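Posting for a labmate who doesn't have an account.
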Amino acid sequence: MCDCFSLPPISNLLAASSLTIVEVVQSALVLFILRKLPPKRLFNDCHPIK
């Protein structure tokens, strides 16, 4: 049976660290974009439903 998908420990460490870096960069990008968006508008012109 071929054990093609087993990686040496150094490759596992490299894969885990690169995955962590990618996740941190994605989270930082999302937070940056959310900070740059304009604030949510309040609808003061609308009348409440009775």
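Reply:
Got it, the structure tokens are right above this. The longest helix spans residues 9-36.
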